[in-house]
Write a structure and sequence with these properties.
The protein has 10 helices and 2 strands. The protein is mainly alpha-helical.
């Protein structure tokens, strides 16, 4: 599954924001929700992110490949984590008594040879809520992340990362990375169309894994070689222009407006508040101070 992150030019609230604001909000929100497993806090963050995403006015047909990839990875990670932990979750204050719904045999690790055997896999109210929390957290972080390539002009990416304090080399490397992915996607589509015109059928690959890899070589090899040659051309061009010898100047200039400052101040204040609750919650058992250390399961689900 390939996802093409292409800039979509549009006049929306999110598009008009300073690129540095979008990048900083991504890190601020990520550090905020990663500090808690409270389903209510994560759900509120998810709803706010969905409102923020809706203000970008991106259509499903423009981002469906990306969202399919996000859903696949998010659900896969949540299920793998659930299976590897055998249904267990971090025990918090309000998770002293697990409300087991069903237990069924599954493959698990053991401390004695043969180290792998039959082990119980528990499905509980707490584990289901934890799965939901993981999904909401991962999808909301991804929603903010995909707004960066879709709503920031590629010509402003380098200066944006430079503007948040990264060195010129790192800023330009990230800039090239965002430009490189759509180029690879375009080359892949061109190569696939050319090979299909010669009778290559991607949907009818037969045989084992090794045979499938060998048969798909006519499709992958030209894309890889073309990417290597293109990268070499970029390196030569940068060396001819003495990139990295002195301080770099950027053609584009970024300017923050009032809405940018308001969003950044609000986001940083929320991050500081959650961080303070996270620290105080380790020392005090008061419900408000210890809130982010609990799952926040509704009483009717876990009486």
């Amino acid at each position: 599954m390939l996802a093409n992150f292409s800039y979509i030019e549009r006049d929306s609230f999110v598009h008009r924001l300073d690129p540095r604001t979008k990048i900083i909000l991504l890190f601020v929100y990520s550090f905020t929700v990663l500090q808690t497993s409270n389903v209510w806090i994560v759900a509120i963050g998810f709803l706010l992110v969905m409102v923020y995403y809706a203000l970008a006015h991106l259509h499903w047909r423009e981002t469906k490949q990306t969202w399919r990839l996000i859903f696949t990875i998010s659900i896969g990670l949540a299920l793998v984590n659930y299976i590897l932990s055998r249904g267990n979750i971090l025990q918090g204050v309000d998770v002293n008594h697990i409300h087991v719904l069903i237990t069924f045999p599954f493959v698990g690790f053991q401390t004695q040879p043969p180290y792998i055997g039959i082990a119980p896999l528990t499905l509980s109210t707490e584990s289901l809520v934890f799965l939901l929390t993981q999904l909401l957290r991962n999808v909301s972080i991804a929603a903010i992340a995909i707004l960066i390539p879709f709503t920031i002009d590629p010509g402003q990416l380098g200066v944006a990362f430079k503007g948040i304090g990264l060195p010129d080399k790192f800023a330009y490397a990230i800039d090239l990375s965002f430009r490189f992915l759509p180029t690879v996607f375009r080359d892949f589509e061109t190569t696939l169309a050319a090979q299909q015109a010669r009778g290559f059928e991607l949907d009818k690959l037969r045989g084992g894994l090794i045979k499938k890899i060998i048969r798909i070589t006519p499709l992958i090899l030209p894309v890889v070689i073309g990417s290597i040659l293109g990268s070499d051309d970029i390196i030569n061009a940068m060396e001819l222009r003495c990139f990295g010898v002195g301080k770099r100047t950027w053609l584009a200039e970024l300017h923050m407006f009032r809405c940018d400052y308001l969003l950044l101040v609000w986001g940083i204040l929320v991050l500081l508040a959650v961080t303070l609750l996270n620290i105080l919650g380790n020392y005090y058992s008061l419900s408000l101070l210890h809130m982010i250390h609990t799952q926040g399961i509704p009483p009717f689900l876990a009486p």
